[in-house]
Amino acid sequence: MKTTKHILIALLVLLSCSCKKFLEEKPTNFLTPDADLTSPKVATAFTNGCYQNLPGLIWGQPSSYGGNTYNLMEFMTGKANSDLGQTGFINFQNLSYNITSFYVDTWWQRLYLGVGACNLAIQNIPKAIQPAATTTNQLAAARTLRALYYFYLVRLYGAVPKVTVVPTVPTPDNLNLSRTPAKAIYDSIIIPDLVEAAKSTLPWKDNTGRVTMSLVQTLLADVYLTYAGAAINGGNQYYALSAAASKAVIANSGATLFNTYTDMINPQNKNIGEFIFQVQYAASVPSTNPLTPLTIPNYAGISKYSDEFGSVYPTPQFIKSFPAGDKRVQERQFFYTKYRKMNSTDTVTFKNTYIYKFFDSLAVVNTAKSDLNFTIYRLADVYLMYAEASNRAEGGPNADALKYVKAIRDRATLGPLPAGMSQTAFEQEVWLQRYFELCFENKMWFDMIRTRKVHNDVTGNWDNFIGHTTVFNATFAEKNLLFPVPKQELDVNPNLLPNNPGF
Question: How far apart are CA 352 and CA 315, in angstroms?
Fold first, then answer.
């Protein structure tokens, strides 16, 4: 497999991060082939290397102006549009994408590079001479991140190659791997890695962005919720496990909902408050968070950025689907429709509604270098996971599930829930709050394929995924449940065939 070969070449680069600043992109030292693997500093470097491909979750797409891996999951929902033809949006708008389309190959590459770095860490950390608890916690971080990378892989592609070791001598047998069914990946890697990590003494919170027990349990909650759902159909026992994991996070993480939505775009709040786990960015390093310029209206002239992309923005139908009075859809909460023109007192009114969730005001008006992180999990997500999972496991909403959904609705200035909601009615309310609360955070597409349901923004109904027609008049089919294995991988590894249905 071509990507596995790339892993072998890239490992020294991945491990070149500083032992003091694990998020520095500019290497400050290198592990040489003769490095002392018993050194605690080397073990730390291996651990740090596991984080280096997290930015791949919102990585720039080569040869695509305004293209970014982040775009893929938003384009696919049918609830997003784009100002740029160069992003390949049209192929996802009309569902004509194929094995050579933008993003499909980039996601595969970046995720397997992350897997490779974690595998290397898991193999080598035990060689270090250091306290046993330190080794255990470093391995827990590596296993958690490997589980995260694989969780994305199986949700995107279904059956994928199972790579758990780094080949010392590459041969056709250990490079040209066949695909392993998604359930087997869950059962042999994702869930065992997280269960093992949960045995560690990782702290529940850490304001530097490292893996914590809160991430371990949040990821377990998400994995169990997905496993229980349509992808694997694991059943009620996994809904119960998901509820238990999310409840542990709520009880122990120390996380609290921010009072205002704009607290989430204040760089001073990185890794604290509502945030459970974020991809780390800093204005002081060359590659800053790309989502601020990505979501500014194209050529709006409101920022210091040389490029304002307008790559992703909501459809008017999605905006209109928010309930009356919902604060999240008010100006400069989750979205915005106007802003002051640079070096002028004039206000520019946009032709569409644009995303405000990644608006770094200092970067926009001054530095053109966003200091915001990208959030993988936050407490609102955990609240809603608990509400959905416990409702399924117990046959209806319990008091805590109602309380957590109420907290989400209260912040949005919505009224109380109807009394005596049925299991189905409450579940659909939770799904809807996930749509509204977590919109454009790369969550909705995974919810759609997990539940096999899509909220129809025009009718207000919950449509079956297969057969749902988007506002772009494209209809989801079974083939759209998984992305294809990229052509560039098939070219070097025919054992990846057959491809996913429809490709």
Answer: 8
Longest CA–CA span in the chain (Å) reads: 67
Q: How far apart are CA 194 and CA 149, in angstroms?
A: 12
Q: What is the pTM of this model?
A: 0.93
Of 91, 6, 147, 151, residue with least CA distance to 488: 6
Buried b (16+ CB within 10 A) or exposed e, 169-183: eeeeeebbbebbebb
Whole-angstrom CA distances from 383 to 253, 274, 276, 419, 434 are 12, 11, 12, 20, 10
- Dump strand ranges (E) for 121-183: 160-161, 179-180
The values of phi and psi at residue 277, to 5°, are -155, 135
What is the DSSP code (8-state) at residue 282? Answer: -
Q: What pLDDT is attached to residue 462? A: 98
Q: What is the DSSP string of 335-395?
A: EEEEEEPTTSS-EEEEEEEEE-TT--HHIIIIIS-----EEEEEHHHHHHHHHHHHHHHHT
Q: Quote the CA–CA distance of 171 and 67 in Å, as a whole number.
A: 35
Alpha carbons 303 and 316: distance in angstroms, whole number: 24
Written as six digits, the tokens of 359 are: 């608006």
Side-chain-side CA neighbours of residue 406 (13 Å): 11
Instruction: Give the integer Cα–Cα distance in Å for 323 and 321.
Output: 6
- In angstroms, what is the C-alpha Rg of the chain? 22
CB 18 within 8 A of CB 113: no
> How many other C-beta atoms can be found within 10 angstroms of the C-beta atom of residue 458?
11
pLDDT tens sequence across 274-317? 999 999 999 998 888 999 999 999 999 999 999 999 999 999 99
What b/e readout covers 281-302, taking b as 16+ CB neighbours within 10 angstroms? bbbeeeebbbbbbbbbbbebeb
**Secondary structure (DSSP) of 82-117:** -S-GGGTHHHHHTT---TTSTTHHHHHHHHHHHHHH
Out of 13-27, 204-218, 385-399, least confident range: 13-27
Q: How far apart are CA 419 and CA 244, in angstroms?
A: 25
